[in-house]
Amino acid sequence: MSALETTQQPIPPFHLAFPVDDLEKARAFYGDTMGCGEGRSSSEWVDFDFFGHQIVAHMADCSHNRLHLSSVDDHAVPIPHFGVVLNMTQWEDLAKKLKAAGTEFVIEPYIRFKGLPGEQATMFFHDPFGNAIEIKAFADLKSLFAK
User: Fold this and answer.
1) CATH fold of 3-143, please?
2) Which residue ranges run through the membrane (predicted)?
């Protein structure tokens, strides 16, 4: 049974720590542009509510962030990346907000597998520190793991 099939218990939030080299820039991007609420913080890190999940921006040297790419649907997908699966309305709203903020997309928002099992919306972009992010949405969330 998958986590999505467990209707009695919510999916537990994930935790991800990632490098940034400017906490104010992180607050502007994740807080203002992405709309993520801020939690605890110190002079070395900031917690953000990433759509119900905890991500933590930690001060680090970002000059070593290396870009790797994987070919998917004739796109060069940045590896590693992290993200979240939203509902379609949330995804569309966030895509509009990111475009309005002048976000440079690695892969522009588009729909994959249109009309097929697993139909999904996706977009890729980098935060100001080179961390790659993918935001997805599914026409039917039950098809998250469809083959």
Assistant:
1) 2,3-Dihydroxybiphenyl 1,2-Dioxygenase; domain 1 (3.10.180)
2) none
